[in-house]
Amino acid sequence: MSIKPQDHFFDVNQVSQCIKVKKPYFAFQQLWQDGNSLVGSFAAEQSLDYETGIITEGELGRHLAILGSCAAVVICNGSEGYYLALKADFINKPHKQTSVNDILYAGAQVLSIDKRSLKISDQAWNTEPVAELLCEYAILSPALFQRRFRHYASDDLSVPDDYPYQYPIPLHSLTFHKEKLDAFAGPFLLNNVPDIFKGTHAGQ
Q1: Is residue 38 part of a domain?
Q2: What does pTM read for this prediction?
Q3: pLDDT < 50 positions in the chain
C-alpha cells in the first residue's frame, strides 16, 4: 500500500491503520522520511520510578518496534497487515543526559522485507543518542491474523478514557531460573481492564 506524504509529513492515522495498531498504543505525533529512514516524534509517558535514564526501556522498545513496522509500509510499500515482533536486540547507548526535552525522536530503516517477514534497525535520540533496536517481525495478513487469533476477539471496541501506558505495571513474585526470570504482573488499576488480565504471568 502506497502512502504519500503531505507537506513532508505522513498521515499518522493512515499509517496506524495500515499496521493495525491504534492509539493509545500507537503514540507517534509526526512521521516523515529522511533518506532511507522513517523518522517519528513522540513524548515519554511513563514515570521512570526505579529505572535510570530519560525513558523506560519498555516504553522506548514499544515505540521503536512500532516505528519499524511503520517504516515497512511507508518506505517499502509493505502490505497492510499485522507486524508481530518476534525477536529483538535492545542496546542502550552511553550518554550523559539526565533530563529529557519534551519530544524524543526515533528513526527506523528496513534491512530486509518479503511477504512474510521484516527486519529493521532503529535508533532513538533526544539531545544525545539513547538506544538502538534490531527487530525481526512476522507479517500476518488480516485474514490470517483473524484465523489464528479469533478466540481472543472481543466485541468491546471502546477506547479507555484514561491513558493506560503512562502507568508502569507492577511486578511481584519474581523467581529466577538459571537465565530466566518469571514474575506476576498487576493488579492493573484501570477500571476498564477486564479481570482476566489482572495478575497476568510474565516470563522473560
Answers
A1: yes
A2: 0.78
A3: 190-204
